Amino acid sequence: MRHIISILMENEAGALSRVVGLFSQRNFNIETLNVAPTDDPTLSRLTVTTTGDERVIEQITKQLNKLIDVVKLVDLTEGQHIERELMLVKVKAVGAQRAEVKRTTEIFRGQIIDVTPSIYTVQLAGHASKLDAFIQALGGSTLLEVARTGVSGVARGEKVLSL
Amino acid sequence: MELLSGADMITRFLADEGVEYIYGYPGGAALHIYDAIHRQDKVNHILVRHEQAATHMADGYARATGKPGVVLVTSGPGATNAVTGIATAFMDSIPMVVLCGQVASHLIGEDAFQETDIIGVTRPIVKHSFSIEDPSEIPMILRKAFYIATTGRPGPVVVDIPKDMTAPTEKYEYVFPKKVKMRSYTPVGRGHTGQIKKAVDLILKAKRPILYGGGGLVLGGASELFTQLAKKLNFPVTTSLMGIGAYPQTDRQSVGWLGMHGSFEANQAMHHSDLVVCIGARFDDRATNNVSKFCPTARIVHVDIDPSSIGKTIRVDVPIVGTATSVLEEMLALLDESKTQLKADALVDWWKQIDAWSASRAGRIYEPAEPGETMKPQQVVEAVWKATQGKAYVVTDVGQHQMFAAQYYKFDKPNHWITSGGLGTMGFGFPAAMGIKLNKPDEEVVLITGEGSFQMMMQELSTCSQFGIPVKIINLNNQSLGMVRQWQDLNYQARHAQSYMQSLPDFKMLVESYGHVAMKVEKAEDLDAAIEKTFAMKDKLVFLDVYVDPHEHVYPMQVPQGSMNDMLLSKTERT
Ligand SMILES: Cc1ncc(C[n+]2csc(CCOP(=O)(O)OP(=O)(O)O)c2C)c(N)n1
Ligand SMILES: [Mg+2]
Q1: What is the mean pLDDT of chain B?
Q2: Who's near B238: CB < 8 A, 6+ residues apart?
Q3: Mind listing the UniProt keywords for this protein, alphabetically (chain A) (predicted)?
Q4: How far apart are CA B36 and CA B13, in angstroms?
Q5: Contact call for residues B352 and B272 (beta carbons, < 8 A)
Q6: Domains of chain A (ranges plus CATH)?
Q7: Distance between CA B11 and CA A55 in Å, rounded?
Q8: Same domain, B242 and B334
Q9: Which of B120, B124, B184 sits opposite A69 (nearest CB)?
């Protein structure tokens, strides 16, 4: 099963490498990872998507909690949650493809944010599966570059991850 | 207000923290600190002959006293030499603080002379690590390092100190931080009462229960409460290798320790039990054998200070996260209050069965050597046990001698069995024994080692002459890497690839050259006298080179991938 784990950690040198090191050291899987400081500059928020059965996920959260730099964490997939990812795609846009890419972008509610005579750069945000679908839909076009941020998320409703 | 340089703050802090000895080795990046050590007299520095020995000395001290061991090394090779000792401490949850010199901040990242990213190198084998970025942080960071190393599940903490942080010219305000608070670290406290009640319910209903204690009882100072619980319940008691001594082994309820080379009765009792109450052990693979066949009929209660130890390798019915002492206290209180009480005869059948297993002495029978024959390692350990009345601190290296020591020396007190269990580090024993003897000069400290392991740290004979550390060394010399050889006998049709020792030194001459006493014993009839002589020389390091049978195997030995009670009992018998 796929899980999204969000972590608040001390914004200190070495904290990120400890989290990432833990995953490789214990043979846990990382599918996506994103990290940035929060509104409180002493805290970073790191979100990782991973897969594993119940026992593995339990170990992941327990081992993460043991890291001294980790202040708090939540497995967002345990409850109702919202997840988003941002993607930038550079795609060849010549001939018939130029209109086709534009149309597909509109259908997916993406934006073309940079244009050259032969290239569109598309920005798309949404659930990771939507980004996957967009890439599928562009099947006929030539993808030149794909940059994804990795998943970020929050719980729905009142629940917050904060100190 | 007091102004001190970074280096002086370090020595001053250590003194204020109550550190009496630090173990280390100097080098460029640590020289400001060494100069500060030279200019004070509260903290004594023990100069080892290899940084690995410094970590094992600190480790041995910590295991015997429960206090954190402190190490000081220089950058680069000094720090990397300490890595094995840090990993050893990490695997057995030993409190330790390792101070590493580092190249000056402006050189970091430039592949400077003797620069190693020791924070990176040690990341998977420390509880936590710090890098000093401003000298004014030194007192607080050191305070945090000690706090983290000693609280919760203990472990080693590395502090990396760039040389410019300790420059003698720059002075900063020094105050010993009384309080330390970290929002991201709160050591575990009491267990959940509801869970403890559930455990007590199972305890009161059990028909074939067993108590299983681990190293956490020793580290957490919970042996006495654990013994009280066992006595109150009249349950059989086993321990992990690390838990040896947490319950008196000469007591009737003790069935010895369990696992790969554990006792026949402990492994049988575990396998047939209907309730395992585990406190402070982590069910590692050398204890459980094949987890899918582990204790098929048992419910499992697991008490541990580290939530990640629970449910990691085996399924647990009642998990309890808390300190061993608090959970044991609460269990005892609940048992006192409980309306249902244990029936006096509830366990009669179970004890009958266990006593029969014990009486069989299965896997424990060896033929002591007749006069003129080469000795059996087992009989040497038994002789040492008798000579020291079971009261010594017994330190081991790793191999057959380690298992024989664990099997044939009977420990009645915690903190006296000192061994590298998790990492299994050959070379651990000698320095660890030194660390204990130095701090407990009036206690008998015996190293039981093998000629292979001893050669990994024998340079420390020199440290012992310099500082007068009179440990007693029993070298069970089987002229081979016995444990490796045993596996080759069993699994590789006795092809002894690189497991025998050619060109052994004359240990007697070697040890004497450092100014110590050494004796060589080759015949059984000379053993008792030699042992008596060894322990009579209180102020001398005595090395007893005892030639033992190289063909001996350690039994019982669990059959790989089998259940707990699937054991080889001798070269020809199997359960
Ligand atoms: C540093 C290290 N290297 C290798 C091993 C693997 N190993 C385990 S036991 C053993 C043999 C130990 O020989 P010795 O110290 O003579 O003890 P014996 O088994 O003969 O009693 C070896 C090589 C180890 N545990 N530690
Ligand atoms: Mg040997």
Answers
A1: 97
A2: B210, B211, B212, B213, B254, B255, B256, B257, B258, B262, B263, B266, B269, B270
A3: Amino-acid biosynthesis, Branched-chain amino acid biosynthesis, Transferase
A4: 12
A5: no
A6: 2-79 (3.30.70.260), 82-152 (3.30.70.1150)
A7: 46
A8: yes
A9: B184
Question: Which one-letter DSSP state was computed for residue A135?
Answer: H
Determine contact, residues B163/B32, Cβ cutoff 8 Å. Answer: yes
Residue numbers in A near B185 (CB within 8 A): 68
pTM of the predicted protein model:
0.96
- Interface test with chain B among A68, A71, A73, A163, by most B beta carbons within 10 Å: A68
Estimate to the nearest angstrom the gap between the alpha carbon of B34 and the chain centroid.
29
CB B216 within 8 A of CB B279: yes
B181 found inside a domain: no
Q: How many residues does chain A have?
A: 163
How far is it, in rounded angstroms, from Cα B152 to Cα B189? Answer: 8
- pLDDT-derived band of residue B501, with 50, 70 and 90 as boundaries? confident
Q: What is the pLDDT of residues B360-404, one digit of tens each?
A: 999 998 988 888 889 999 999 999 999 999 999 999 999 999 999
Q: So what's the ipTM on this one? A: 0.93
In a domain, B328, yes or no: yes
Active site residue B51: yes
pLDDT in tens, B25-56: 999 999 999 999 999 999 999 999 999 999 99
Q: Show the domain range for B529.
A: 377-554
Residue B90 and residue B56 in one domain: yes
CB A105 within 8 A of CB A137: no
Are B357 and B390 in a shared domain?
A: no
Is B7 within a domain? yes
In terms of domains, do B414 and B507 share one? yes
Chain B residues with CB-CB distance to A71 below 8 A: 183-184
